[in-house]
Amino acid sequence: MGASDFDASDARARDFLDASTVVELATVSPSGRPFVTPLWFVADDGALYVTTAATSRAARNVATHPAVAMLLHGDRDGRRDRVLLLRGSATVHHAFPSWRVLAKLALKYHLSPRGALSELRHAAQWPLRLLYYSDARGGPAHLRIVPTTGEIVPASP
Q1: 73: closest CA among 119, 26, 18?
Q2: pTM of this prediction?
Q3: Nearest-angstrom CA–CA distance, 59 and 63
Q4: Which of 19, 46, 50, 131 would bridge with 77, disulfide CB 3.0–4.6 Å?
């Protein structure tokens, strides 16, 4: 898969989306500085969705500069030699995503056997997570990211 228009139904792209726990989202700040953050995500109907706070750096950056880049590592499959690089456009929505997207997030990260095991392994970090969410000002938000191009590239060492 060379750099080309993104097709969510492409088997290779679908494999990376299904096998990736985190997307590394690259945005540009209002002053033009790059910012990369790892975020949980789900794919739905050709778009990627991440939940965040309305005042998070990623949300503020996307509101100013909607062009984004994303790396997916396929970490669930133990891939280390290549990554899926997506480029596209993101929008900030100052609300929770649809129930369908929320259900997908819950299933992927909390209700699946792998997700439940991860939650139990990281139970000691729950107070930190609660602190993070309690500090989220401006209420809930989500980013809807529509990939426009994608390519599989070698992973950097």
Answers
A1: 18
A2: 0.86
A3: 6
A4: 19
Query: Per the domain annotation, does 122 fall within a domain?
Result: no
When divided into structural domains, the chain yields a total of: 1
| CATH label of the domain that carries residue 88 | 2.30.110.10
Rg (CA), the chain: 16
Tokens of 86: 């997506």
Q: Along the 157 residues of the chain, how does pLDDT read in single tens digits?
A: 455 677 777 888 888 898 999 999 999 999 999 999 999 999 999 999 999 888 889 999 999 999 999 999 988 777 678 899 999 999 999 999 999 999 999 999 888 887 788 888 888 888 876 766 666 677 889 999 999 999 989 988 6
Q: Are 71 and 83 in contact (CB under 8 A)?
A: yes
Q: Encoding tokens for residue 10?
A: 């492409």
Identify whether 130 is part of a domain.
Answer: no
CB atoms within 10 A of CB 136: 14
